[in-house]
Amino acid sequence: MLVISEQDIINAVEPIEYISAIEKAYVIQDKATTNIPNRMHIDNDENTLLVMPGFIESVFGTKLVSLFPKNLEKEEPVLKGVMVLNDAGTGKPLAIINGNKLTAMRTGAVGATAVKYLAPFDSKTLGIIGAGVQAYHQALLISTVRPFQKIIICDKNLSKAEVLKSGLQERLGNIGITATNDSNQTILGSDVIVTATSSYKPVFNTNIENLEKKYFFAIGSYKPDMQEVPLPVYEKLDKVYVDTLHAKEECGDIKIPLEKGMIKDEDVIPFSSVLTSGELLEQSSLCLFKSVGMSLFDLTVAELIYNSAKEKGLGQEVKI
Ligand SMILES: NC(=O)c1ccc[n+]([C@@H]2O[C@H](COP(=O)([O-])OP(=O)(O)OC[C@H]3O[C@@H](n4cnc5c(N)ncnc54)[C@H](O)[C@@H]3O)[C@@H](O)[C@H]2O)c1
């Protein structure tokens, strides 16, 4: 079995390659050979273990992700994980892969894919609310699909926004990057906005009249009582895109507006239907994509990482 570390992942796959793996996931999402059960949430006090198994034609596997919100105070990543990848012909375990990096790269690529197909082509400024691990990877991947001139990083803790700004500036040299703790100004100044916090309460309260043409990609809420997007925003939306329809039960950003009648069941559109239509559906009015993630993304991305690592002689073979 191949053990693939964070550094092996970085050496194995270029950021842009992840976007094709995510597009492949959407294309096979409804195929009979794809079997992706809803992920299991195990809550223990404020901590959560997510168990994310699934099958596609060539491989199957399971990602185990833990979310420990108090790690923020210990300067430890909130999200940690491992992924076991198996051969679909024999069941043989092929690899154990660092799940923190895999998750961050694949979620960045889910953001980039959504922006590629839906966001205004002339988007100039990317705003990111929440300056954690996901924010870095969202900026890295999303900046490959639009010619952004500026990135605004916002965190309630300004020093976190400043640290991320420096790290990103080093990586993305030619884009101007600023740091702030003002989420409303971030939204007003941005064309594409990513929310990547673990907040239970909406992370902005901008007047909805100022949101025309804004494109939102929200990834933070993963429980029914977690919300990043304020309810008045849904008054302006005639549909909401999701990566998986399980979002309707799993996260407050879809479940609460549905329960309050602010959106209807049929207004929640699986993004696979957009992608398989083959058109770039640039949205000219306010647009919201809510991602909760699913094991299907982890499988297509883990397969890409495994094949590239094998080809480049990366990772460590171990007998178990
Ligand atoms: N949709 C997906 O597929 C997916 C994948 C991975 C992670 N996530 C979720 O994304 C969220 C962020 O993950 P992370 O690993 O970057 O976490 P993180 O803890 O590293 O970063 C979150 C940041 O958000 C900031 N924050 C919290 N509340 C805020 C607010 N109201 N306004 C501004 N900033 C605020 C925190 O200070 C922190 O810096 C988590 O909820 C995680 O579960 C989703």
Report on this model:
With 320 residues, this protein is an alpha/beta fold. It has helices spanning 6-12, 17-28, 99-118, 133-142, 158-171, 183-188, 232-235, 247-250, 252-259, 271-276, 295-312, and strands spanning 2-4, 40-44, 47-55, 59-67, 79-87, 93-98, 125-129, 150-154, 176-180, 192-195, 215-218, 240-242, 268-270, 287-290, 316-317. The strands form 2 sheets. An 8-stranded parallel β-sheet has the order 9-8-7-10-11-14-12-13. The chain has a 7-stranded mixed β-sheet with strand order 2-3-4-5-6-1-15. Strand 5 and strand 6 (93-98) form a beta hairpin. The protein is globular and about 60 Å long. The site of nicotinamide-adenine-dinucleotide has 30 residues, from helix 3 and helix 4.
Helical proportion, percent range: 25-40%
* Helix/strand order, N-terminal first: EHHEEEEEHEHEHEHEEHEHHEHEHE
The CATH class assignment of the largest domain is Alpha Beta
Instruction: Strand order, main sheet: write it out.
Output: 9-8-7-10-11-14-12-13
Please report which band the strand proportion falls in: under 5%, 5-15%, 15-25%, 25-35%, 35-45% or over 45%.
15-25%
Please provide the count of β strands: 15
CATH superfamily of the largest domain: NAD(P)-binding Rossmann-like Domain
CATH topology of the largest domain: Rossmann fold
Low-confidence stretches: none
Largest sheet: 8 strands, parallel
Mean pLDDT across residues:
96
Q: Which CATH-level-2 architecture of the largest domain?
A: 3-Layer(aba) Sandwich
The helix-and-strand class reads alpha/beta
Structural domain tally: 2
Determine the N-to-C terminus distance.
Answer: 7 Å
How many helix segments?
Answer: 11
What compounds sit in this structure?
A: nicotinamide-adenine-dinucleotide
